[in-house]
Structure formats: structure tokens, C-alpha cells
Specification:
Blueprint: E1 2-8, E2 12-19, H1 21-38, H2 51-58, H3 60-82, E3 92-98, E4 101-108, E5 112-115, H4 132-146, E6 149-151, E7 161-170, E8 173-184, H5 196-200, E9 208-214, E10 228-241, H6 248-252, H7 261-294, E11 296-299, H8 302-322, H9 327-334, H10 338-365, H11 372-386
Antiparallel strand pairs: 1-2, 2-4, 3-4, 5-11, 6-10, 7-8, 7-10, 9-10
Helix pairs in contact: 1-2, 1-3, 4-7, 7-10, 8-10
Length: about 400
């Protein structure tokens, strides 16, 4: 195998690799054996037909392509080792000729990272305090969650749960017609469209109403933006929350139970403090890492960047598919074309890579390592966060 190396800009090496026939033959033989195992050739048991029979059966070109598919990764690995390259990503490979076998590979090297005066970084960590307002908000939330829904002998008010029939028409076409729908009449409820809940206010049980609402600019279905939707509703039932008094009896029914309201308040205070402390720690770490990244220069291959961009967009597309949303539909909704979307993804990837390589370089310069126990604890935390 003949290998020549050429240095390219942006931490890349171009390898030109040429194989002689003696080196190619074992791969052709492996390709033939793989093909023979997959073919049913009359007169021969599966996998027992000789190469002289198999090769004309599948074609010399196909056999050569299969051989190259096996050969190139192995030959490239040997070439990288032979040239002692510090490979940093997936190479781009291109076949030059098949006879003789010549191919070239652009190999991304590990990025070159420089940190500037990172030991001068200073950032104060914010102190954490829990306010009475936070405790009060949590208590009110608990009152709401634990309170039962009871029939309300009055017209609809915001925060009620309403059972109603609803029919909607857009451009003369019926888009929904549902009976006995349970609906939360909250001011910020975006379903079916913002403003719908407010139209129900003051309607009594048994009353009906017709009204129109225009779909807002940020509506998820871009084809409906700006159009009027005509609604017909009929109210069947109105229910409200009967909030309990905030006393010791209430505290005994929360979670595992607390002897007094003050004990519940103290538990709430402790829980909020823990959450705020963790949030403050994350903000502190993010700020320090951001300062570190701002003092970091990273020279890296475009191949590494584009591979990460492809990976990010692939994950995003799979996530959208799980929500039964196509990428084209999503881009229409956010008002971007594919080029703009990829450019944004590339910017995000560059920021993430810059931060990651900065931390890696810092760990190397300061000889920082993680113990086995720390690694196992981090894995446990990640698994718990991922859920069942």
C-alpha cells in the first residue's frame, strides 16, 4: 500500500492511498465469499459455488464494489496509523480509480486549542434566599391541586372547568364539531385559540353563544394564520374549585402528611432553597464556562463541524416525527428556509464544540480526572433524569 500525505488548512490531512493487486485480491475473495453465502445458484449448495461461477453471476463490477466497501475502512485505518495522525473525526473518502485501486481521504485532525489566561477568570456566585412570596405561591398551588371540583351555581368565570359543545368553521368548512368537551377556562389556554376562554365568561349553564376569533401570527398551522374562525358553543356544566383553608388539617393531607402548617411551610422552604441553589450553581458554571470559551481559540476541521450539524438535524427530525410533524411543516411554522435553519444549527454546534474543547483542554492542562465513583454517580444521575 502506497500512502502520501498532504497537509490542508483547518486541521485536515489529505491521504492518497494506492493498493496493488496482491493487496486487493484478499478483499475480492472476501467479497466473493460473502456473495456466495447470499446466492442460490442451481447445481450448487448455498455458499459452495466457486468464484468462477459466482463472479459472472453477480458481475465483476459488483464484486469490486463490495471488495472496496470492505477494503477502504481497513486500508484507511492502516494509513492513519502509518502516518501517526491524531484523527479527530470521520474522514471524507473518495474513490479516484478502481483499476488500480486509488482513493483519497480527507482526515480531520484533533482540533488545536489555545486557552488565554484562563486562571484570571473570576465570577461571583450568587447567594440564594427564599421569599415569603415563593412559599405563598407554592401553598396556593397545593390548595388548587388538592381542592375538588364542585358544581358552580353561577355563570362561567376564568379558572372554571366547563363542559360544552363546540363547533368551529373556517372559510365555510367545519373544522371541529365536538359534544361534551371538558374545557379549562384559563386566560392563557391556547386551545383551540387564544381568547376562546374569555368568550365563555358570563355564560350560564344551558346558554349558547356564537363568536369569531382570528388565528394569531404565531399559530401552529401557518395556513390558518390571520383567518377568522366562527365558533358556536353551548354550556352544559360549570365547575369550580373549593379551596380548603390553610391550616393544620390541610397540612396533614399534603404528601405523606405534616403535623402542622408550619412544618409544611418549612418543608416547602427547604425544597425551594434546594432548587434555587441548584439553579444558581448551574448559572455559575455556565457563566464561568462562557468566560472560558471566550478566552479559547479552536482551530478545527469543517468535516467535524458538518458531521455534528448533520447529527443535530437528524435528531431534530426524529423528534419532530415522533410528534407527527414534518421538517418542512416545522420550517414553515418558524418562518425559515432549510439554508437558514442549517446555518443556525451550525452556529449552535460551533458554540457547543468550542465550549467542549475548552473544557477538555483545561482538564488536560490542569491534569483533572474523574474517579470511577464520580463517573458512576454521573451515569446514575443521567439515567434517573432520562426516566423509565
Amino acid at each position: 500500500m502506497k500512502v502520501t500525505a498532504e497537509e490542508l488548512p483547518k486541521r485536515e490531512i489529505l491521504l492518497n492511498i494506492e493498493m496493488d493487486q496482491d493487496e486487493l485480491d484478499p478483499y475480492l475473495d472476501r467479497a466473493f465469499r460473502r456473495a456466495a453465502q447470499q446466492l442460490n445458484i442451481p447445481g450448487f449448495r448455498k455458499g459452495k459455488a466457486p468464484r468462477a461461477v459466482v463472479e459472472p453471476y453477480v458481475g465483476r463490477e459488483t464484486l469490486m464494489d463490495d471488495a472496496l466497501e470492505i477494503l477502504m475502512p481497513e486500508a484507511l485505518e492502516k494509513a492513519v496509523a502509518q502516518e501517526s495522525l491524531d484523527q479527530g473525526g470521520i474522514p471524507h473518502v473518495e474513490i479516484v480509480t478502481k483499476d488500480p485501486v486509488v482513493f483519497k481521504a480527507t482526515v480531520p485532525l484533533m482540533p488545536k486549542v489555545a486557552l488565554d489566561a484562563y486562571r484570571d477568570i473570576r465570577h461571583l456566585r450568587e447567594s440564594v434566599e427564599v421569599s415569603e412570596e415563593q412559599i405563598k405561591e407554592t401553598l396556593e398551588h397545593l390548595r388548587w391541586e388538592l381542592a375538588p371540583w364542585e358544581p358552580a351555581d353561577r355563570p362561567v368565570a376564568l379558572e372554571d372547568r366547563v363542559t360544552l359543545d363546540v363547533r368551529a368553521v373556517v372559510d365555510g368548512r367545519e373544522v371541529t364539531n365536538q359534544k361534551g368537551v371538558a374545557y379549562m377556562a384559563r386566560a392563557d389556554n391556547p386551545n383551540p385559540v387564544v381568547g376562546f376562554a374569555q368568550e365563555l365568561v358570563d355564560l350560564a349553564q344551558g346558554q349558547s353563544k356564537e363568536f369569531s376569533i382570528a388565528f394569531p401570527e404565531d399559530y401552529e398551522d401557518a395556513g390558518l394564520v390571520g383567518k377568522d374562525c366562527s365558533f358556536s358553543v353551548a354550556v352544559h356544566e360549570v365547575k369550580e374549585k373549593k379551596l380548603p383553608d390553610l391550616d393544620d388539617e390541610f397540612a396533614k393531607g399534603v404528601g405523606q402528611g405534616f403535623d402542622t402548617l408550619e412544618a409544611l411551610r418549612e418543608d416547602i422552604r427547604s425544597g425551594i432553597f434546594t432548587q434555587e441553589e441548584e439553579a444558581a450553581r448551574r448559572r455559575y458554571e455556565d457563566a464561568v464556562i462562557e468566560q472560558l470559551a471566550s478566552r479559547t481559540t479552536v482551530e478545527l476541521s469543517d468535516l467535524i463541524v458538518e458531521h455534528e450539524v448533520d447529527h443535530l438535524l437528524h435528531d431534530e427530525q426524529e423528534s419532530l416525527q415522533r410528534q407527527q410533524v414534518g421538517m418542512e411543516q416545522y420550517l414553515q411554522t418558524v418562518g425559515k428556509n432549510p439554508e437558514e435553519h442549517r446555518a443556525e444549527a451550525r452556529e449552535a454546534v460551533l458554540k457547543r464544540l468550542n465550549r467542549g474543547y475548552a473544557l477538555r483542554q483545561l482538564a488536560e492542562l490542569e491534569s483533572l480526572t474523574a474517579s470511577t465513583d464520580e463517573i458512576l454517580e454521573d451515569k446514575k444521575t443521567l439515567l434517573e433524569a432520562a426516566g423509565p
